[in-house]
Every structure is written in C-alpha cells, then in structure tokens.
Amino acid sequence: MLYPSFWIQAIALAFSQIRANLGRSLLTALGIIVGVASVTAVIAALVGLKTKVLGEFESFGANRLFIFPDRPDDVPKNMYPWKDVRLKIEEVEAIELNCPSIRCLTPVTSLGMSAQFGDRLIEGLSVTGIRPAWHETENRAILSGRPFNSIDEANARQVCLVNESAIEELRLPNEPVGSHVLLGGRRYLVVGVVETIQSNMLGMNTSSTEVFVPFAIASRLKDDDFFFRIAAMIESPDLAGEAKSEVRFVLRKMRGLGPDDPDTFQVAAIDQFIDQFRALAAGITAIAGGIVGVSLLVGGIGIMNIMLVSVSERTREIGLRKAVGATPAAILLQFLLEAVVLCLVGGAMGVAVGEMLAFGLTLIPDAGLDEAHVPIWAIVMSFTFSAAVGLIFGMFPAIKASRLDPIDALRHE
Amino acid sequence: MLIKLRGISKIYRIGVETVHALRTVDLDIGENEFVAIMGSSGSGKSTLMNILGCLDRPTEGEYRLDERRTDRMSSADLALVRNERIGFVFQSFELLSRATALRNVELPSIYARGDRKKDRRSRALAALDRVGLADRVHHRPNQLSGGQKQRVAIARALLNRPAILLADEPTGNLDSTTTADILGLFNRLHEEGQTVIIVTHEDEVAAHCRRVIRLHDGRVASDLPIEEDPAGRFIPQLAAGGSD
C-alpha cells in the first residue's frame, strides 16, 4: 500500500480535509502557530543580540583586562571596609611594575562636574579622569588635536579631551581645539577630539557626551577614598590567563591576603564577559524552549482532539475505504499524514509570523536587535518539531481509525 | 467453484448471551451466477454477506474464494482480497461527498497493488461509461440523483474487475422507477459475465435474480432457482428480454 500514488492521494486528501474545515483547522493549528512563531522570534532576537554583542566584544578588544574593587560574597561588610577594598594608586604602580604580561594600564575614574562654555552651562556632567595609556587601552582615534601625553599627567595640566557629542552639547565651535571650557569653575584647554564609539557595554563609554581630563586632576578633585578602576591592555590575547594571575598575585601580596582569604578585587578579561553572555543566551534559549515546549504540547493536544473528531465524523468513510481494500496500515498512515500536514501547515504559518516578528524587532530603535533574523536551522527545527508533534499526537487518533471494524464503521450513523 | 462455504458458523458473544448468527452453512456459488440472498431481520443474511465479502471472518468453517481459503487470513490480506476480488454496493451509496464521480470510482485503485493501478483514469472512465454515466464524470455526488449515485457506486465496485459484485439492499433508498433501472443494470452486468449477489428482503428485487437463497435463523432455509421460489411471481417481463 506504500505506492507513490497512495502517498500523493493521502497528502492531497489531507490538504482537502484542511480546506474543507478551514476555520476549524486554523483554530486547531493556532497552538502550533503560536509556539513556532514565538520560538522563531525568540531565536531571531537572540541571534541578533549575539551578533551585536559578540561584535561589540570583538571591537572592544580581546586583549583588554579590567581590575576593580570587589567585596567577597557571603561575608559581613564590616570585615572588608571600603578603604581596604578600594584600589590605591600604589597598587596601580605595583601592577605596572610587576606584571610583565600587561603592556599598559590606566586608572579610570569619573566625577560629576558642571561644564560651561560661553552661556551654555551643563550641571553634573560626567567627566572621566584618565592617563595617557588610556588611548592605547581603549584604542580610540583622535579626530583632531592631540591625545593626552605624560606631561599633561605629570603636571596635572588643565587640559581636556571632548567627543563630538560634547561639542554639540556645549555648543563648542566645530573645531574646538584651542577653546577653553569651564569645568567645575576652572578653565580647561581643549586639546583634542576623541571619536565616539557606539557602545553601551559593561558600563564603559556609556555617556554619549564625554569629557576627559588627566587622572592626576581628577584624583585631586575627589575624596581620599575615591573609587577608580583599572583598564589594562594585555601583551596578547592568549596571555589573558597569565596577566590575571600576575595581577592577582601582586594585589593579594600588597593587601596582605592569606592563602584562605578571598580576593577583595576582581580581574576580568573580555573572554569572561563573552562566556557570561553565552551562558545568559543559553539560559534564555532554555527558558524560551520550555515555553515553546508547553505551547507545542497544548497545540498537540488540540491536534489530537481535532483528529479524534475527524475520525469520528468520517467513520463511514473509513468503513468504505476499508471495504474497497484499505488495509489498517493504509488508514493509519492516512490519518497520521493528515495530522502531520496540519501541523506542518501550522508550522509554516508560525515561521511566517515569526519572520514578521523578527522583522518587527529590527525596527525597534535602540533595542540593539537590528541584526535579528531567523536562521535556517531555526526554520528546519520548527518544521521538524511540527512534524514530530503531528506524529506523536496524531498517532492515537490514527490507531483508533485503523482499528475500526469496517462493518461497524459502515453501520455508524 | 467461485465461492465455496463449508460448515460456516458465526457466533457473537454479547455479554453473557451467545448469538448464533450463522449455523453450519454450506453454500456454493459459481461463476456468472446472479443470486439473491434473502431473509428477515436477524436471519443471518447480513452476517453471511459480511463473510462472503471478506469483511468478517467466520467463527468456524471453511470459506474458499477462487480456491483460496480466506477464513484465517489477516485483516491486511482480507483487505487485499476485498480490493481485488470484491466490489461492494451499499444501500446508502457511500460516496465521498467532496470528490467527483471519477475520483469516487478511482478510490479502490489507490489501495491496489502495482498492476491494478495502471491506467486508473481510463479504467475509471470505462467503468463510468459501462454504467451509463460517461457524461457525469466531473459531477459531485450532490449534483447527482439517487439512481446516478448508485451507478457511480456500481462503477466503483467494477473498477478492479471483481470476482463478485456484492450489493447490500442496493435499491433500498431508491424509488420504484430508479429501482428498476438499477436492477436492469445488474442484470446487464450479469449477462456480460459478472457474478452478482444481491442481499435483499424484497421479493420484487429478488425476482430479478436467477437463484434465491433464503436464510432463516442462521441456516439456509431454501436455495431455489427463481422460477421455483415464491419471489418468482414477481419476475418482470423485461427480465426475460435482458436489457434495461
């Protein structure tokens, strides 16, 4: 009975059944449609996010290292007072001297200041204090003027760097190098314009308006116990592990931590963030998978229900088909195919809706999803799952149909 | 002998009750016979028809169709026998309402083995032509009269050139004029060499056949040529002429 024309007829029959009961079929397939559409949309969003985030990590540089103070978890706060935990300038110097895997580093701190140029006044502008090595660790181009140099830092010269957005915000002249800006009431000479990097990753480069001053100046303007972190550049990306151990060794020694004491700081390289992001993406995928599993289950039960109705409605037809020579296997296959076709139609519509949702996601401004798209493997997976739901939930009704006694079936009212 | 029944019994158990639908029936039906199986309700004629049509297996006894024993076949094998050797005609036609006459007639071929599938379309058209519906090929059942529907059903039964055309009350849903038409058609098919068995409770219908088997209480009560059977008085004039 497994001749090609049987399959063609059975598939044609399945489609004609769907067409004959269009409204009912679509309602039944809704569970599948919703399930598949949501999984495709979630996958599209994750794919988009991943492309974007990993791309940003990439541009961020794989050879960067961050050091920041961090209280150990699960210990009373008073065991590690802030003044012990915070990074100190001596520690910066020690790392600079004793960590051969680190090419260069800069402490980074930010402070809120008022900024004024002419009549234009901005209160509470976040100003970042950096050392000249920052240009190397951040790898950000100077569009005009010059970068900070060691004299700026050593003499704590009142100079600043701005980005394009700061030029706009402060209504600086288009070529601002040589202009003077009032920061916290003091005059700073604008010596250069730094390119803006569109990034909102990891709390770096967040403010679109950026003003930089030498770290020496920033530290003078802050309290004694002020917070700063260290941005460092590793000699090469594969030295990330070594660089981390070197920093840990230096800091633990300087802080006098015993072998059993936890770190009171964190050393993080970009690979760690990539791993974290990957874990997060995997978590979201698992949750989405669970939700989709539930909706496919519900959809499958709907399919089973409608197939049982169909078997019951078409009992006489089944009887007739058996009388003219359909074997139980032929009837089983026919109803199974019908359930699978119904699920695949639902799956196809779900993929279509998912594609539309994915396209909609790319239109959301600032959501970081402009790279969202449905990958081929997600479409293949959607169809596979739909077919599997059809097979699993169509099996019981199909078995029921195949076992009908032709005499009883033909007598059925 | 085309059909050979020996000691056929069918026993149903409904709860604690045992129903003997057939009690050791012996029966021979030869090729190109035109037989009426008669009996009142509960006489066992439906059970006999189901067994003859390989829709059901006897509890006891031996059924040979074309010298092949069918009483112990699996359901899949029985399905194949039904497909190749038996053409069913039902009281309520049993046409697929959404399919055209042609599609309905083609139905048995989708379950057939290889060589019976060849020229499905032309065989279906030939069968429709044979029952006089060459001009209704693309009509759906709801566009056909009762008599035309039954002709489509007969064409479907003829598609795979069955050994037996088995009709269960084929005129039960038809008016008297159409009944005469359909019975005339059966008569013509018989004259063309087709073995025809009609299950009926009406003497007027049985009168078109050549042999009448009457069942009573699960046994063959009488088995006579139509002229000797009480139904013989209803023999229509044109039956002798042999055309519809």
The whole-angstrom Rg of chain A is 33 Å
Poorly predicted regions of chain A: none
Question: Beta fraction of the residues of chain B?
Answer: 25-35%
Q: Which fold name is given in CATH as the topology of chain B?
A: Rossmann fold
Mean pLDDT of chain A: 87
Query: Structural class of the secondary elements of chain A?
Result: alpha+beta
The number of distinct helices of chain B, counting runs of at least 4 residues, comes to 9
Q: Sheet bearing the most strands of chain A, described?
A: 6 strands, mixed, barrel
Number of domains of chain B: 1
The biggest beta sheet of chain B reads: 6 strands, mixed
Pair of chains with the largest interface and how many residues each contributes = A-B, 24 and 27 residues
Identify the quaternary structure here: heterodimer
Distance between the termini of chain B: 29 Å
Morphology of chain B: globular
Helical content of chain A stands at 55-70%
Average pLDDT reading of chain B: 90
Counted up, domains of chain A total 3
Give the topology string of chain B: H per helix, E per strand. EEEHEEHEHHHHEHEHEEH
Give a brief outline of the structure.
The complex is a heterodimer of chains A (413) and B (244). Chain A has 413 residues and is α+β, with helices and mostly antiparallel strands.
Structure notes:
The complex is a heterodimer of chains A (413) and B (244). Chain A is α+β, with helices and mostly antiparallel strands and 413 residues long. Chain A has 3 domains: 4-57 and 274-411, no CATH class; 71-99 and 240-263, no CATH class; 102-234, no CATH class. In chain A, 56% of the residues lie in helices and 17% in strands. Chain A contains 14 helices and 10 strands. Chain A has a 6-stranded mixed barrel. The longest helix of chain A has 44 residues, at 270-313. The two termini of chain A are 28 Å apart. Chain B is of the alpha/beta class. Chain B has a single domain, classed as P-loop containing nucleotide triphosphate hydrolases (Rossmann fold), CATH 3.40.50.300. Chain B contains 9 helices and 10 strands. Chain B has helices at 45-52, 75-85, 101-106, 114-117, 120-130, 146-158, 176-191, 203-206, 237-241, and strands spanning 3-14, 17-29, 34-38, 60-65, 68-69, 86-89, 164-168, 195-200, 211-216, 219-225. Chain B has a 6-stranded mixed beta sheet, sandwiched between helices. Mean pLDDT of chain B is 90; it is low at 239-244. Chains A and B meet through helix 1, helix 11, helix 12 and helix 14 of A and helix 2 of B.
